Amino acid sequence: MKWLYNNWHKSTIFIAIYVLIFLLLFVLQSEFSLFLIWLQFVVYLFHQFEEYILPGGFVKFFNNKMLGSNNEKYPLDDKASFWINIPIIFIAYPLSAILAGNIDISIGIWTAYFSIINAISHVGMFFKHRYNPGLFVSIFLNIPVGIYTIYYFRSENIISTSEHAIGLVIGLLVQMAVMIFGFMILKPKVK
Question: What is the pTM of this model?
Fold first, then answer.
C-alpha cells in the first residue's frame, strides 16, 4: 500500500487524457449530457495533477499554510491524501457517471456541484495565501465546466429542480466531510 500512497497521483494525467479521448470518440456525439458528467471526472483528474504533480506540493501547502504545522508531511500525509482522494474522485466520480448513463442522468450532477464548491475553496485560499496547488485548474476548468454543466442541464430541462437540489446538497456534504476531516480531525493534531 505504501507504493500506492506515494504514487497514486502520478496516474492522474494519463487517466485524464485516456478518458478524455474515449469521451470525445464515443460519448460526445451520442449523449452530450452524459459527456458533461464524465467530463467532471476528467477535469478533477487535471485538478489533482496540478495539486500533486505540476507544480504539486498540496500536502506541504495544506500542512504549513492551512493547518499551521511546521512539518510539511504532518498531519496530512500521503496515506491520508490517498484515502481522501481515491474514494471521492477515483471511485465515486466514475461510479456516478456509470450510474448516470445506465440508471438516471441525475445521479451524476453532484459531481459538477462538488467540483465548483471545491474550486471555490481554492479561490478562497488564494485571498489569504496567494497561489495554492489546484488554483489554476479550479479557475480555468473546475468552475467553468461545472457551471456550464449545471447551466446545460437547467436550460435543457434534463433533470428537475429537486434533482439539482439533491446534487447540490450531496456536493456540499462531500466538501463538508473533506473540511471536517481537515480542520476538526487533522488540525488538532498540530497542537
Answer: 0.96
